[in-house]
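In response to reviewer comment 3 from the previous cycle, which asked for concrete evidence that the modeling workflow produces usable outputs, we include below a single protein chain processed end to end. The sequence was submitted unchanged, and the resulting structure tokens are shown without manual editing.
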Amino acid sequence: MRGCAARCCGSCPVADLLNQARDLDAADSIAHFRDRFDLPEGVIYLDGNSLGPLPKASRERLHRVIDAEWGEGLIRSWNELPGGGGDWIAMPQRVGAKIAPLVGAQPHEVIACDSVSVNLAKLIGAALSLNPGRNVVLSEPGNFPTDLYMIQGDGRVEQRLAERDAIFDALDASVALLLLTHVHYKTGEMFDMERLTKAAHDVGAIVLWDLSHSGGAVPVDLNGANADLAVGCGYKYLNGGPGAPAYAFVAERHHGEFSQPLTGWMGHAKPFEFSDDYEPAPGVTRLLAGTPPVLAMAALESGVELIAEIGMDALVAKSRALSEFFLECCVHHDVLQLPSPLAGEGGAPSRAEGEGVPAPAAAGAADPSPNPLPQGERAFAGALTLVSPRDPARRGSQLSFRHENAYALSQALIARSVIGDFRDPDILRLGFAPAYLRFEDIAEAARHLAEVLETGEWKEARFQERAAVT
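The workflow returned the following structure tokens.
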């Protein structure tokens, strides 16, 4: 590692990175939103791609729902209370409408409900109802497991898998549904949504996008891409809390035609008439099954409102800048070697004019390094290999690195209060959620990573035993 360690002398490359980070923080137009989160002192949280932190407003909102709406309003709070509040029955539609602009949808096309897994089951059924006569669901090996399990659990369908570079060739007239995750959970690689959707439509297939690592993190334009169906997660970049409700999208053009298999009472056109026979509600409301989880929905609503207030353009720009700065720091610390230099002419990274942050690559630009990098291209034995795309426009708000002892490495970092996570078999995954992270956090995280690698402290016995959740 270049330069000195934790107690820096002030005149080494480590100090240069810290000074650069502080300059970037001073120029950050959304830095003040960090104060809207309840973050533990001294913790560098690089795992918002798994679970977002607690917004302060969510704590206040939950207290209000518990004390005033549940405690005093009781069952009356299912309807709107005279003094405001309540209206629990409309929460799925109301929260969905607030998520919609974050993913390029109209308010009436998105509903908040259930989990990603349950919504996948519903939308696989919806796709089959929209495409009668076909039963093949095409996906890719290595997709998030629940996506594949939900395909396998539907006895009506045939699962077909194609490697990422063969998906276009695998699309044919037998495919009912193309089901893909927009941003890959393990590598962070992002699919070209518009191009793949068009290719699927050209052979008469419906497309279902899993936005679990996209919503609130990267540009998503479901209607611009002419998408049919989508699901997304509420507890990652939307900061809805552990186990927060998910959301589902159905394009307006399908509202009068689709059906779904989980025909619960909340998806009935008139649930409080208590009819013996199911009559689907109009639009996305028919995706509802059971009673909405009010407390969880209230927390999600608060998290979504905060992300909407910050704005996706600012979030995306800062996310890319944070991850690029982390790569720059890793190169300075000799723990990562990139086949093309981060710096431009003269060794200085480029900056967006007036922003004080690294300029993201243009959308659609060629990726200067393959994905993944060759296993042997490392700065020294035991260093990291980048498996995320080098071009920030082609990845989500995360960086993934290969290391043969990635789990122990992640645990050693957590012991230093740098929290990322691990994905089997050898991936260290770090998230760069921009709403609360500082560039100084990024510089410090890279320093800790370099020290853990250089000292070999990850080899300690306490870091080897796998926890139930990794």
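Residues 341-381 have pLDDT under 50 and may be disordered. We consider this sufficient to address the reviewer's concern, and the full set will be provided in the supplementary archive.
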